[in-house]
Design goal:
Elements: H1 2-21, H2 27-44, H3 46-51, H4 71-91, H5 95-120, H6 125-133, H7 136-141, H8 147-167, H9 172-188, H10 190-209, H11 213-234, H12 240-252, H13 270-286, H14 298-318, H15 327-346, H16 350-358, H17 361-377
Helix pairs in contact: 1-5, 2-4, 4-5, 5-6, 5-8, 6-17, 8-9, 8-10, 9-10, 10-11, 10-15, 13-15, 14-17, 15-17
Length: about 375
């Protein structure tokens, strides 16, 4: 109950801060206003309310699944707006009441991840509770009326369903949760769904066959890259690097943000991606630096990141070789690494990078906390990364 109240407090704080510091317009309150318009349509024109979601107003129809404009890009906000329409039946458009409804769903992501990590790390509840519920930026950014809340919740739900479907031998409820969460991820933020596929295959194979997790994941990702190259050769119109380069260009064409950072322009070729990899890694994993805070809002986030970096160093110093790594830890690590690298390539402002990164921190920080906890408080136990 206390953990859920913290979630609600974070939601209220996010709503208040976004309205106070960005009264001219922000995504959170903008989506809430869109939900009110959808509510009015629900009663004035219910046929349009339910059918327009399947109709594309664009000349290119339903093309451009990964584009930054078009039907598929609009769909994510449309789905959130129509969900808010039903919330507005009770809330009458009040942002904070709608936020409460949304966070009933958002809290599922925390609980789902907790159950997985608690099963992996038996009887070590505190590092798991902290990692799954109390990471400040994760708690904050996954609490607003926004796509991030849905992504975090569905990512946790998918992880839970995948883990226990293999451990408990695929029950119907796990299969249903797996399909539902994947579809929502695909519709709301398709690149996350793409990143999940090879990680899921690696997890499933290494778990069922009891193969070495590192070798299994390395093999799966190597094969995936080879298949992408072959498919691009067979079908030249399929160019993943071109899609990513275009996403970066779309971000660069947006109005300059207060936390804007310089980025090298990506070219749709392997050489450009390799050359820009150090910058992408730096911006996705290490920024903002503690001395680099263009806005006051970034100061606590820079301090939080510095703490995580210090915890990582402490874990490495105290690390002792133990049992083989749990496949789920590599599953979470590979999804996080894929999405953080993708974010580092395309996003040109620190504020957005911090927000996107926050959704994957539980996968990275929970194992660090556990290993430190084991080395400090359970010195006779093996620790696993």
């Amino acid at each position: 109950m206390i953990l859920f109240l913290l979630k609600i407090f974070a939601a209220i704080l996010l709503g208040w801060m976004s309205q106070k510091f960005y009264p001219q317009g922000n995504d959170y309150w903008g989506l809430n206003e869109a939900g009110w318009r959808e509510y009015q349509m629900l009663f004035s024109n219910p046929k349009k309310f339910f059918t327009e979601i399947f109709i594309s107003p664009y000349q290119n129809g339903y093309q451009g699944f990964f584009n930054s404009t078009g039907y598929w890009n609009d769909l994510k906000n449309t789905l959130i707006g129509k969900s808010l329409a039903f919330c507005n039946i009770l809330s009458r458009g009040n942002y904070y009441i709608n936020s409460l409804f949304f966070n009933l769903v958002g809290f599922i992501g925390h609980v789902a991840l907790y159950r997985v990590f608690a099963d992996i790390y038996h009887k070590q509840k505190w590092p798991v509770i902290i990692g799954c519920f109390l990471l400040p930026s994760t708690l904050y950014f996954s609490s607003g009326i926004h796509k991030d809340l849905i992504i975090f919740s569905m990512l946790g739900t998918y992880s839970y369903a995948l883990y226990f479907s293999i451990k408990d031998k695929a029950r119907l409820k796990y299969s249903a949760l797996l399909v539902l969460s994947f579809i929502l991820l695909l519709l709301i933020r398709n690149f996350v769904a793409v990143a999940i596929i090879p990680a899921s295959i690696g997890f499933a194979i290494s778990s069922k066959k009891k193969w070495n997790a590192w070798l299994t994941f390395a093999s799966v990702y190597s094969i995936a890259f080879v298949l992408l190259g072959i498919f691009q050769f067979i079908r030249p119109s399929f160019q993943p690097m071109k899609i990513i380069a275009q996403k970066q260009q779309d971000f660069l064409e947006l109005p300059v943000a207060s936390s804007q950072i310089d980025k090298h322009v990506l070219e749709p070729n392997l050489q450009s991606f390799v050359q820009n990899a150090p910058q992408a890694i730096d911006q996705a994993l290490l920024r903002p630096y503690i001395w680099e805070t263009p806005t006051k809002f970034l100061v606590p986030l820079a301090i939080e990141l510095l703490i995580y970096e210090l915890l990582f160093i402490v874990m490495v110093i105290g690390y002792k070789k133990g049992e083989p790594v749990a496949p789920f830890l590599l599953f979470g690590f590979m999804i996080s690494l894929s999405m953080l690298l993708f974010t580092g390539y395309i996003v040109p402002n620190i504020g957005s990078i911090v927000r996107y990164r926050s959704l994957y921190l539980p996968f990275l920080i929970t194992p660090i906390l556990y290993n430190i906890w084991q080395s400090k408080f359970k010195p006779n136990k093996h620790i696993n990364l």
